[in-house]
Design a protein that fits this description.
about 110 residues; mainly alpha; 5 helices
Length: about 110
C-alpha cells in the first residue's frame, strides 16, 4: 500500500520494505502459492485465511537485485503472453470471416 487505506477484514495488506523485498517478486510468489491458499481457505460465502497463517508463513527469498530480475523476467513473459493471446484472437476472427465468405450458404443452415 503506497498510501494509508482502509480495507475489508477479508484482506491482508503488506508494506514491503524495498530494501528486503520487491513488490512484484512477492506478487509472483503469492500467485505460485495460490493452490496452497485455495486448499486451506475456509468459509462458505467468502473463503478466508486467518492472519495467524500469514504471521507464521516463512519463505526464503534471494537478494533484492535477483528478486527484481526474476520479477522483470516474469513481467516480460506476461506481456508476451498477452500479446500472443490478442494475436490469436485476431487470427480467430479473421478465420471466422474467411469461413463466412467461403461458405455463405452454411451460415443459413446453421441458424
Amino acid at each position: 500500500m503506497a498510501v494509508p487505506m482502509a480495507v475489508s477484514q477479508h484482506f491482508i495488506v503488506w508494506n514491503c520494505d524495498n530494501q528486503k523485498l520487491c513488490n512484484w517478486f512477492l506478487y509472483y510468489l503469492l500467485q505460485l502459492m495460490k493452490p496452497v491458499f485455495e486448499r486451506i481457505a475456509t468459509g462458505s460465502t467468502i473463503k478466508t485465511i486467518g492472519l495467524p497463517f500469514f504471521k507464521e508463513l516463512s519463505i526464503a527469498v534471494p537478494s533484492v537485485s535477483e528478486q527484481k530480475c526474476i520479477a522483470d523476467c516474469l513481467t516480460s513473459l506476461d506481456a508476451l503472453i498477452t500479446a500472443a493471446t490478442q494475436e490469436l484472437e485476431t487470427f480467430k476472427t479473421h478465420k471466422k470471416g474467411l469461413m463466412q465468405q467461403l461458405f455463405p450458404s452454411a451460415e443459413a443452415v446453421a441458424a
